[in-house]
Specification:
The chain is an alpha/beta fold. It is 44% helix and 15% strand. Helix 1 crosses helix 4. The radius of gyration is 17 Å and the shape is globular.
């Protein structure tokens, strides 16, 4: 059966408030002024280190920067996060139709685990969760989605598989891996000049495309 691999931030969950709050907590901790949330969120999608280097550039060389951010985020990553509308219903329907599901995200693995567990979504993905901190190159490197496929079904990707996400890193990962890309316009990532196969304006629209996508 074909598989669908989901990004997390801006795809399964709206995580903007907690991410921006933690970055600004770290900025204050370093004696710096806060940044507008939108300016912080523009740097989400390429891993924690990229987020920090571009949202706290004044302290990019500070050896304690990542630890400061991670220690606070570990305690607050689930405070305001919410799944996008109809996520659970859509995942249930995909499972019922026989789709295999995985998560391929650049988000720190401890936060991914905490968020999925809080909302009871771990059962949809099992061990097929690849995240930042797993020692695997981050998206857009194709190794991340290949590893996710290996954890999901023990073998390589199929050209019928899909990567669903809201960022150019997701769509470029799909292209690099030879799978299809579904771009989520409801998220907060940046597409840049990346190409996609279909555009999804609401999460549940994946169901409308499901039969067509599986037959390609």
């Amino acid at each position: 059966m074909p598989a669908v691999f989901f990004d997390l931030d801006g795809t399964l969950f709206d995580t903007r408030a907690d991410l921006a709050a933690t970055v600004n907590h770290t900025r204050r901790d370093l004696g710096l002024s806060e940044w507008p949330a939108e300016q912080v969120i523009a740097n989400v999608g390429q891993g924690a280190r990229y987020l920090l280097e571009h949202s706290i550039p004044e302290a990019a060389d500070d050896a304690s920067l990542t630890e400061r951010f991670m220690s606070h985020y570990a305690e607050h990553c689930c405070e305001t996060v919410q799944p996008y509308p109809n996520v659970r219903r859509t995942l249930d329907e995909l499972k019922d139709r026989g789709w295999l599901l995985g998560v391929n995200t650049n988000k720190p693995n401890f936060a991914v685990k905490a968020i999925l567990e809080k909302f009871g979504l771990t059962r949809y993905f099992g061990a097929a969760v690849v995240a930042g901190g797993d020692g695997i190159p981050l998206k857009p490197d194709a190794q991340s989605i290949r590893e996710c496929a290996a954890r999901l079904r023990g073998h390589r990707l199929s050209s019928h598989d899909w990567m669903v996400g809201d960022s150019w890193t997701d769509m470029q990962c799909a292209a690099n891996a030879g799978v299809k890309g579904a771009f989520c316009t409801f998220g907060f990532g940046q597409l840049r000049d990346a190409r996609f196969t279909v555009k999804i304006n609401r999460f549940e629209e994946l169901l409308r495309h499901c039969h067509e996508l599986a037959s390609w």
